[in-house]
Amino acid sequence: MTPSVTRRDFLKVSAAVGAAAAALSFPVAFGLRKVRAADDDAQTILDIAATAETFATTHYYRAINEMQFNDAERAYMLAAMESEWIHRQFLIANGAKPITEAFYFPQGTFADSKMLGTVTAVAETVFVAAYLAATRRFAELEQPLLSMVSAQVAVVEGQHLLFMKGLSGVSPANDLALGDPLFFNVSDAVPVVSGLLDGKSQVAGIDTEKDAVPYPGDDAIKMLLGDKSYLQPPKPATDPATFGM
How far does CA 160 lie from the centroid of its chain? Predict the structure, then answer.
């Protein structure tokens, strides 16, 4: 059994992010590798993506409720949570069924901003790569508008990645010319983050909490957002009104 990572151990990992990323790419620094498996069908892509967005919404919800942020940071966190929630809503409206709605978080994730940035940047790196894979596969499946939506989401996940790499200590945080295409298929990402789903393996080299944390629910998300939306109205490529059709 691998011993649990202490807060001091995690701080050492967090402090090493900038140096590791300077010598290696951010994904390589955290053991992420390009893989290739059988091609996904559309339902598999939707279900995995909905699971990821459910996790991401829960993740940002926990951060907002368990940590202290200044006004600008809090506004960012609320906007990030709202965008992940909208992604989840879109996917479910298009037939997605999350694999699970309860998740095991890496220990110490919400201890401080640097820890949050380190863990979240790993997750967002995986999300960007998965949506790039979805873009490729939907195009191959002759679903060009879903392919565009996947690219739209990848752009937003890349914005989250930039902010979180900055929190983790990577400088400059905008050190990518192109998103890293780690995966050929969306399903290739699942083994990388399996610990989030079952709590049986480490995530980014860190043991997970013992208890799964459930998705807080749509009503809780709405309550946290209040009457304010932090985002511009979404314009999915699949909506005919987006192109005036």
Answer: 8
